[in-house]
Structure formats: C-alpha cells, structure tokens
Amino acid sequence: MSENTLKIKVTIANRTYPLTIKREEEEQIRAAVKTINDAVARFESRYAVQDKQDVLSMCALQLASKAEIALKQSQDVQSQAGKALADVEAVLDAALQNG
What we know:
Shape: elongated
Helix content: 55-70%
Structural class: alpha+beta
Order of helices and strands: EEHH
Strand order of the largest sheet: 1-2
Radius of gyration: 23 Å
Number of strands: 2
Largest sheet: 2 strands, antiparallel
C-alpha cells in the first residue's frame, strides 16, 4: 500500500465493506456513505419494505436521478457560459475593427 492510499471500512445498510482509497478521497467517500445510509433510513421509515435489496435499489435510483439532473444543469450552465463568451468575443472583435 502506498503512502497515498488508505484502507478503511465503511458500513452501508448494516454491511461492512473494506476499501482501499486515495487519502484525499476519504472525506468524499465517508460523505457518500452517510448519504446512502440516510437514504436507506428514509426509505425504511416511509415504506414497509422487508428486503434491503429493494431499499438499496430505490436509493440507487434516487441518487442516480439526482446525478443526472446535476449533469444536465452543469451542461446548461456550460452552454450559457459558452454563448456569453462568444457574445463578448463578438463585441471585442467589433470594437477592435472600429477602433
């Protein structure tokens, strides 16, 4: 194991998983585990679900849906920024040609 990696254990839905991660990823991994466990707890408290697989599937669907929405929003922002930069470039070109 290199100095840049870290062995940790995480618990998701009452199951423990050993992971080897980059040291700089630990905070994000632990935050992700908390997000998953919070979602599991929400689903279990709201619905009479007996099977952890069903709860984890619903969590995966919810998180993947949020990721898709965030990706779409990011793409929209990038597109708007690109258009704004093109507009600025056009104004600068016009100013230089008339200057």
